[in-house]
Amino acid sequence: MGAAMETFYSVIRRQGITRRSFHKFCSLTATSLGLEPLAADRIANALETKPRVPVIWMHGLECTCCSESFIRSAHPLAKDAVLSMISLDYDDTIMAAAGHQAEAILKETRAKHKGQYILAVEGNPPLNEGGMFCIDGGKPFLEKLKMMADDAMAIIAWGACASWGCVQAAKPNPTQATPIDKVITNKPIIKVPGCPPIAEVMTGVITFITTFGKLPELDRHGRPKMFYSQRIHDKCYRRSHFDAGQFVEEWDDEAARKGYCLYKMGCKGPTTYNACSTVRWNGGVSFPIQSGHGCIGCSEDGFWDKGSFYDRLTNIKQFGIEKNADQIGVAAAAAVGAAVAVHAAMTAVKRLASKRADANQDR
Amino acid sequence: MRIQTPNGFKLDNSGKRIVVDPVTRIEGHMRLEVNVDANNVIRNAVSTGTMWRGIEVILKDRDPRDAWAFTERICGVCTGTHALTSVRAVENALGITIPENANSIRNLMQLALQVHDHVVHFYHLHALDWVDVVSALSADPRATSTLAQSISNWPLSSPGYFKDLQTRLKKFVESGQLGPFKNGYWGSKAYKLPPEANLMAVAHYLEALDFQKEIVKIHTIFGGKNPHPNWLVGGVPCPINVDGTGAVGAINMERLNLISSIIDRLIEFNEQVYLPDVAAIGSFYKDWLYGGGLSGKSVLTYGDVPEHANDYASKNLKLPRGAIINGNLSEVFPVDHANTDEIQEFVVHSWYKYPDETKGLHPWDGVTEPNYVLGPNAKGTKTAIEQLDEGGKYSWIKAPRWRGHAMEVGPLARWVVGYAQNKAEFKDPVDKFLKDLDLPLSALFSTLGRTAARALESVWAGRQMRYFQDKLVANIKAGDSSTANVDKWKPEGWPKEAKGFGFTEAPRGALAHWIKIKETKIDNYQCVVPTTWNGSPRDPKGNIGAFEASLIDTPMMNPEQPLEILRTIHSFDPCLACSTHVMSPDGRELASVKVR
């Protein structure tokens, strides 16, 4: 074994895709990315000759919701991603091997694929108690994480845990759970936040890398722009009700049954950057707002510590815009322009405020 | 050293020590150490939870209405069950009732989780303990087709189907990049299936991977996403509007139809793929009836799936409730979460500190202060453990006991209690399964029995989903569209102090949360979760927990390959992220590692 490495090209060929279609795919891909025509050939060449990219998927303090989300992917199917697009050589949650046989894979990967594998991290390391709030192979998880990061090509931080810290890092963060970019500083890290991230966003990020041989374009927080550059509110299908001042006032009231805006019920859509209102969840079936509950902002840094999930964003009095949401309700028609301005300003203020809070905390 | 535990197990730690760390194909982090004798039979077992997150301390002083979202993040595999337990605890403390529709919807979500979790557990976390993937390459596709058609009407069973699958598998293996199958125990004599059964099982591994994502769409419809759908104290967040203005923003006819079609498909998958597979695989492992552990002695189930809203009494619950001790199936004891003498947690062998560690504490009075020390006979250092000392502290999991007894929880516990209570819907399928395999009732108390109970329960849960879907529609038809009770939504009317508990049967077993509320905020929150019961370390009297008990006396084919250990431990479906407990609220300074 080991002689005949399977490439992406041979995989898709045996799945019945013709050579002609393959080249068409490469051209379209290049065009859709705004690359020059020659790029299509480079993409084709890479896909024809490269073995599947080894992926090492490690788990720190987490709840495994990211892995569970990943296997929900409808396009590509998780089955095809794992069998044909990447080589998932290590993942504690699904791998056949355990103990020594599992540990041996990590050693082999570092030796054989130095600088060529993707390290996908779900969860984060705790720093308290010498790191022993998360033990792996008798040692602190942190040690294993740093060892595997050293020889990785790039790192994917899956979910809110690896990206920001998530629930175990919520105040008072008893284990000192720490996002991975605070402990690994020598490698590119792609943050894919959410609790968990959307399945097709996860497979989208990973197949982008294997397909185009480069990392996706990231925003200043390290998130792929393609999925995290707009707020849920920007593309929410209930947005027209916000603009028209039509709000749910109480659970299961007439407005709730009509699908009005959940802003007054604490929806964090106006301050949350994610693709829920466009990609939606579980093959496009729904997303939180569509199913009647406000967004809890699970892809945002520190979302556990920003007050109750049911506090209206405007309840945060220092923003001084408590009145605006109610005025919108009264003067619906006049409010369209104002509402847009209000929530845009609010977002900006809120971001600044939370940054300041973080800074204070660090001190 | 040879000892006899009070709960009836002979332990001997004089033989060779084998360490499995990490234990994979589970949720979270776990370590196992066993001693084998000269014949490679396991004579001592030490199970260690190797992670701790402290979610309960994080809950202190928060809004009780938010607690479901925090506790839901205890586990993303059994997603939703902690949230349901949490909203029940808050409702119990504050005296909040929920509408009948909310009860049906919660049951549909909880049952969808049972089916999803059981299917994914069997195929993706457990099957590779029974199925040799590489052996499937030498199967005859035609004979595989004959085998498949002999056990089920499932349509994906033609020789061509299996041949295509085998070709794909062959190319995958020949690529040299084995991915998740790398370094598996392929070719071990501990695998007993013929190549054809292996090929059929691999086909269903992949089909189940495709299908599981459909099951959870029921969570997405009612809760907006999966994993981690949204819940609500006082009901469910999704309103019902079948034909009025804006019906597209609520549960309408299209949504009800989608739910219905998913239920039809999962019933079909359970009955034509999952259960027949377990029976077929079981028929080749009839001689391997190890792993019974506590299941024939002491089992505990809280019960779940209320027929009517707001009644959590035993006779209103469709999943059985009760405790059996000392293997006496003729007596099922009642269980009371509020009785401080019943459920207690001990820490003498856990990395926590109590003022008096000979005594246990009821969760309402639970304290947890981390105390990470190794026993005097441990090998290695505190941050590079080579071998643990089970005579000292050795796990991040506490040891819960029911009236002093170590208990097994989970599907097998539920089905044993249902069987003991002589309930036909539990007794008949067990009897039929055993009869088809020509096995006695005693065979139920084994690793195989645990795996079979889970499959039987998935079938049961699928049919219950049909029942509650019909009930939901009938209730809407009768004019009731209510999904939430907002009478006590606002904290203004809450009592100054309140306490309560909520319980469910998570896929992995009995789960309960205890809450104390003071001045509208959480004062104390404690969860005792299934893997705390099953994975518990020893208690002050030396009773061993369910994981440890299940491994005793199991022969290993090859001690270098922990296949038998994994097979039995996986049959519990361990969930280690659940071992979360509160620490001293003053947040004492702990040793910290430098990161740069």
From TrEMBL, chain B:
PROSITE patterns xref list: NI_HGENASE_L_1, NI_HGENASE_L_2
Predominant cellular place of this UniProt entry's protein: other
Intracellular or extracellular location(s): Cell envelope
Classification via SUPFAM superfamilies: HydB/Nqo4-like
Cofactor(s) essential for the protein: Ni(2+)
UniProt cross-references to Gene3D superfamilies, sorted A to Z: Cytochrome-c3 Hydrogenase, chain B (1.10.645.10)
UniProt keyword annotations, A-Z: Metal-binding, Nickel, Oxidoreductase
Record flagged with keyword Membrane: no
Coiled coil ranges: none
Source domain of life: Bacteria
Keyword hit for Cell inner membrane: no
A Pfam family recorded for this sequence: NiFeSe_Hases
Summary of the function given for this chain in its UniProt record: This enzyme recycles the H(2) produced by nitrogenase to increase the production of ATP and to protect nitrogenase against inhibition or damage by O(2) under carbon- or phosphate-limited conditions.
Description of how the protein assembles with itself and partners: Heterodimer of a large and a small subunit.
Family: Belongs to the [NiFe]/[NiFeSe] hydrogenase large subunit family.
Protein name: Uptake hydrogenase large subunit
Organism: Bradyrhizobium diversitatis
